[in-house]
Design goal:
Blueprint lengths: L1 E4 L5 E4 L8 E2 L2 E6 L14 E4 L5 E4 L19 H12 L5 H6 L14 H9 L1 H4 L6 E7 L4 E6 L5 E5 L4 E3 L2 E3 L1
């Protein structure tokens, strides 16, 4: 962050343009909102920050009971609400969404499990974000009581998978 000074009574703060892969607000800039994205503002950069490392190398999507959570958002900007729905239905315990919301990193506590499209942006920008394994990662997007969206990071393959197997998790937050 740079600082510019006007006259004696004026203090102006400027923020340099962020780029994907840059360290920022507790993680790494993973995506910058584009025109058409929910929350896009041409005057202010907003986007996603990825945690710099995985939160789990093997955890289930659900808390042991197949339930419909209605976490069906797929678009960029829907992961946080999906995560809140998952937590409200699944309750306490250790599962993909819960470990994301429990994360405190860089002084930030608003981490969540990314939606289908948010997870795909992590895949697209994986080389500059860094630290991804060649495995399946969970998203917060649900298909039904037994399946949720996953992405395979070696080749970008996507689809629904049973909520029971253990997969990797990388949390994100908005800026």
């Amino acid at each position: 962050m740079g600082t510019a000074y006007g006259n004696q009574d004026t203090f102006i703060t400027t923020v340099a343009s962020l780029i994907i892969g840059q360290s920022y607000q507790g993680g790494i800039v993973a995506y910058i909102l584009q025109p058409g994205d929910s929350g896009y503002n041409a005057s202010i950069q907003h986007g996603l920050i990825a945690a710099p490392s995985d939160q789990s190398t093997g955890i289930k999507w659900y808390n042991g009971t197949y339930l419909i959570t209605n976490a069906i958002g797929t678009a960029i900007g829907t992961g946080a609400s999906n995560t809140a729905l998952i937590i409200s239905v699944q309750g306490s315990g250790s599962y993909a969404a819960s470990i994301c919301t429990a994360l405190t990193l860089g002084g930030y506590t608003d981490w969540y499990l990314p939606s289908e499209d948010e997870l795909n942006e992590l895949y697209i920008n994986r080389a500059v974000i860094g630290g991804f394994a060649s495995v399946y990662y969970w998203s917060s997007t649900e298909a039904n009581s037994t399946e949720a969206w996953v992405q395979y990071f070696p080749n970008g393959g996507q689809g629904y998978a049973n909520k029971g197997p253990s997969n990797y998790v990388r949390a994100v937050r908005r800026f």
